[in-house]
């Protein structure tokens, strides 16, 4: 079987998973999170290749006693077949398939040539609708709407309009984007605009995208980095914030809670975070003391809310929540420089996971 075909099968499994999540949330609107082990219920295996023009047979392996049948994954598979069938006939997409999930088809069928197709046959049926480049185009064109997503940009702040509360950002590819000024970064954006010819800037935040997936505007700046010839400025700034935390005395929280942070502990956290942002993947986090004695570092990366909790015993607990999909990711690390690479990879995966429209430039 061609490698491209295997890639398409993986994407198909991911599509079934995303639609199943949507179906579960629709049926359980009061729940904030998916049940533990939800994704583990989808176990697709390539059981055999039937004779003819490369016909892979995918089977779902599951313990019958553990789930009701059909469950969300079975229904998701059926919905996908109905979507392809409707699009192949030039009909509107089925009512049960939300427009918000049309983007899933961006990744399915990318490798197909003009004369190739994927026939979706489920159950005991012997034929099914065919998915080809034309059908893919029909499905994607049904959702020509603007949307919001992660921005991770390198460029320069070329100006600002105080009356409008906006700034101009010129990307490396000469694209000019307008962004909203926010109090947390207003002063630094203005300073960068004055020196835009000699200073680059990196902005991580949320942007508005056109239907063709091009970036229309920066709606929210979440983290800012300024690259000058004499050094790098991180906003928020790490060392000064750690110094403020180190100066806290016993009882700093409500006069009764919160113990003093030893310089050895806060210094170790500072070294870890400086090494992390120095790898140029993670932007600088917001840093807070906690009455429990930990130091908390927090990032907003598009729709991902990320926290790293540094404990005095040298452990780092990292947790990420996508506020749009409720997906969570976690990692347990040590606060030594050897694990900075793992933390860097964790943040990098989050920055790369926004499939709704990520326009990212490399330095």
Q: Main attributes?
A:
single chain; 363 residues; alpha+beta; OB fold (Dihydrolipoamide Acetyltransferase, E2P); five-stranded mixed barrel; five-stranded antiparallel sheet; disordered C terminus
Could you please describe the fold and organization of this structure?
The strands form four sheets. The chain has a five-stranded mixed β-barrel. A five-stranded antiparallel β-sheet has the order 11-12-13-14-15. A two-stranded antiparallel sheet has the order 1-2. The protein folds into three domains: 3-141, no CATH class; 147-230, Nucleic acid-binding proteins (OB fold (Dihydrolipoamide Acetyltransferase, E2P)); 236-360. Strand 14 and strand 15 form a beta hairpin. The chain is an alpha+beta fold. It contains seven helices and 16 strands. Helix content is 27%, strand content 29%.
Structural class: alpha+beta
Q: Tell me about the biggest sheet?
A: 5 strands, mixed, barrel
- State the helicity in percent bands: 25-40%
Q: Give the SSE string.
A: HEEHEEHEEEHEEEHHEEEEEHE
- What's the mean pLDDT score? 84
Please give the domain count.
Answer: 3
Query: Overall 3D geometry?
Result: globular
Instruction: Enumerate the strands of the largest sheet in spatial order, edge to edge or round the barrel.
Output: 5-6-7-9-8
Unreliable spans are 355-363
User: Total strand count, please?
Assistant: 16
Oligomer: single chain
Strand % is: 25-35%
Total helical segments: 7
- Give Rg in angstroms: 24 Å
